[in-house]
């Protein structure tokens, strides 16, 4: 295991919102650059990193469908939004000297590689960060499910879900003042209580394949490395021992 890190290979899921900073929409350069520095530190510590990035900062299928657009077309727009985010993060990572490949579930050969599992594994073994874009490539799914799917396919030791807060709470801590924070949960706790952390299909996929989910906030500097070393604040979702 690299240095004091508890995991050898991880998948980091960032929502589109996580790239917005304090903006209402789109990408915030400073936020994306800081994320790149956080990832660089982890890669330099010897951890193999792959990523799934959401698209909610640009477009969400359900919102498009609500305006009367056909749902599948709206979902494809959402998937394309994740490609835009992936290219932004790739560029920020390369600016700080981290070799990166983007692989899209919707082939786009002029822009990035198509998703090829074995090739992705090889990139990671060489120390490159692989960003999986376009979700699962299928409408009616989310990038959370894509993250769980890729984490399983890549044989990751953990799925790290970066959110706006430092773990899973009993209610939205931004709205409910006395919401309590959990240190540890089982997959069934999340599913049975419908805790809003990831959708049920993503949680089930992790459960079936015994991949722990670590929920943490990327807002505090150094959080990604801290969580991987088993320190800092996070909620871990795993099977009961
Ligand atoms: N999407 C999809 N299939 C997938 C992943 C994503 O159709 O496998 C679409 C869906 O419309 C979704 C949008 O892409 O609303 C953006 O992804 P998501 O909402 O998961 O992004 P996040 O909330 O993480 O920013």
**Domain unit count:** 1
Specify the overall morphology. globular
Identify the strand order in the major beta sheet. Answer: 4-3-5-2-1-6-10-11-9
Radius of gyration: 17 Å
Question: Which helices and strands appear, and what pairs or packs with what?
Answer:
Blueprint: E1 9-14, H1 29-44, E2 48-53, H2 61-66, H3 71-95, E3 100-104, E4 113-114, H4 117-125, E5 129-133, H5 143-153, E6 158-163, E7 168-169, E8 181-182, E9 184-185, H6 187-192, H7 200-208, E10 213-217, H8 223-228, E11 235-237
Parallel strand pairs: 1-2, 1-6, 2-5, 3-4, 3-5, 6-10, 9-11
Antiparallel strand pairs: 7-8, 10-11
The protein binds uridine-5'-diphosphate.
Residues 15-17, 54-56, 60-62, 75, 78-79, 81-82, 135-136, 138-139, 141-144, 146 line the site of uridine-5'-diphosphate (UDP).
Task: Describe the protein.
It is a single chain. The chain is α/β, with parallel strands linked by helices. The chain has one domain (9-230): Acetylglutamate kinase-like (Carbamate kinase, 3-Layer(aba) Sandwich), CATH 3.40.1160. It has helices at residues 29-44, 61-66, 71-95, 117-125, 143-153, 187-192, 200-208, 223-228, and strands spanning 9-14, 48-53, 100-104, 113-114, 129-133, 158-163, 168-169, 181-182, 184-185, 213-217, 235-237. The strands form two sheets. Strands 4-3-5-2-1-6-10-11-9 form a nine-stranded mixed beta sheet, with helices on both faces. The protein has a two-stranded antiparallel ribbon with strand order 7-8. It is globular. The site of uridine-5'-diphosphate has 23 residues, from helix 2, helix 3 and helix 5.
């Amino acid at each position: 295991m690299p240095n004091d890190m508890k995991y050898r290979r991880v998948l980091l899921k960032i929502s589109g919102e996580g790239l917005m900073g304090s903006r209402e929409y789109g990408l915030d350069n400073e936020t994306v650059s800081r994320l790149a520095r956080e990832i660089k530190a982890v890669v330099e510590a010897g951890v193999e990193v792959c990523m799934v990035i959401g698209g909610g900062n640009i477009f969400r299928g359900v919102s498009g469908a609500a305006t009367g657009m056909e749902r599948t077309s709206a979902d494809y727009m959402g998937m394309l939004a994740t490609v835009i985010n992936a290219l932004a993060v790739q560029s920020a990572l390369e600016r700080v000297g981290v070799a990166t490949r983007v692989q899209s579930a919707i082939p786009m050969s002029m822009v990035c590689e198509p998703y090829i599992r074995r090739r992705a594994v090889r990139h990671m073994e060489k120390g490159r960060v692989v960003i999986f874009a376009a979700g699962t490539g299928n409408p009616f799914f989310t990038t959370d499910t894509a993250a769980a799917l890729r984490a399983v396919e890549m044989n990751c030791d953990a799925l790290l879900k970066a959110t706006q807060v430092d773990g899973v709470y009993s209610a939205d801590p931004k709205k409910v003042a006395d919401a309590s924070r959990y240190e540890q949960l089982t997959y069934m706790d999340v599913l049975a209580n419908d805790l809003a952390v990831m959708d049920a299909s993503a949680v089930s996929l992790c459960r079936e394949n015994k991949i722990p989910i670590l929920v943490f906030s990327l807002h505090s500097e150094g959080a990604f490395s801290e969580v991987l070393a088993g320190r800092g604040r996070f909620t871990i979702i795993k099977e009961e021992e």
